[in-house]
Amino acid sequence: MPSAQSTFKGLPVIPPNDPSLTATTTTPRKIRKVFEAIDQAEGAGARVRRSVGTRELKNFTPFLMLDHFTIAPGAGFPDHPHRGQETITYLLSGAVDHEDFAGNKGTIHAGDLQFMTAGRGIVHAEMPAQNPDGSANIGMQLWVDLPEQLKDCEPRYRDLRSNEIPVAKSEDGKVEVKVISGRAYGVDSLQELAYTPVWLLDVRVQPGGTFNTPLPHKWNAFIYTLSSSINLSSGTDSRTIPQYHNAVLEQEGDSIVASVPATADKESRFILVAGLPLKQAIVQYGPFVQTSTEGIYKAMADYQGYANGFERAENWESEIGKSMVH
């Protein structure tokens, strides 16, 4: 649907003249903390490993939440609201159907993404496809805060298909990067996927390979390991990051250096996420994200009263939500 903010192009996802991106010599970022994302129940029968939005890492601006989810057939996330944030869903295996009250609907498959700007209000459902072999649907969902001046923008929805995502490789061929958003090895992503500038790189490193990339100056960043472990180096220090762990990086420094020993028996895979910090308060109550407590009370009242962005929620039910197995 057309957006009331259609003239707002957002800040560039690759900042021009950024001192870290243009530096001739770079200093690797140091590690602030490392912790495991613990498996837990979420939604209706889903399992998630949450690594942003927990006591270990809360309100890491502009990031609100990161879930590594597993949705078995018969489980899912039936009709629910959002306001004040954007969600980025990246499917790793299987397929997920989505539908919202603005009339957007469709299915993303392994390697695809969906970008949803909740803005002033959206109600949607996310339900797993029934895979022929009965396997679970696995992916990542990242919640990104919206700049305060865009909290009340019209909701919007976009897909990004796997075949639209450029792939970058290191010179020795031991590193492969899906450049979903941002830059790696001189390869740039599609622009303006979200209002808040965010880098999202899906990185695979073969044994004996080293991933090295600059990151925008002072952006907050972290790495989440999907399979096997990696060694993160910062100058003279090196630390092993095991599978399903989040490594939070310091703002100081220009680059990331991650390697896999030549003696490893298989490749390692991780996602690198970085975003422009927003200088604003974060007040969150479930799916509502505002900059004040008053904003949260208003969001709850608007949702319950079908007002100020939630008018279309009245009497709306998604078709895919009705498929829940009870």
Automatic annotation (TrEMBL):
All copies of domain Pirin C-terminal, residue ranges: 201-305
Q: Name one Pfam family in it.
A: Pirin_C
Residue ranges of region Disordered?
Answer: 1-25
Q: Which domain of life is it from?
A: Eukaryota
Q: What does the UniProt cofactor note say?
A: Binds 1 Fe cation per subunit.
Residues the entry annotates as binding Fe cation: 80, 82, 124, 126
Molecular-function GO terms, alphabetical: metal ion binding
Q: State the needed cofactors, names only.
A: Fe cation
Query: Which keywords does this Swiss-Prot/TrEMBL entry list?
Result: Iron, Metal-binding
Q: Where is the Pirin N-terminal domain?
A: 46-144
Q: Which family does it belong to?
A: Belongs to the pirin family.
Protein name stated in the entry: Pirin N-terminal domain-containing protein
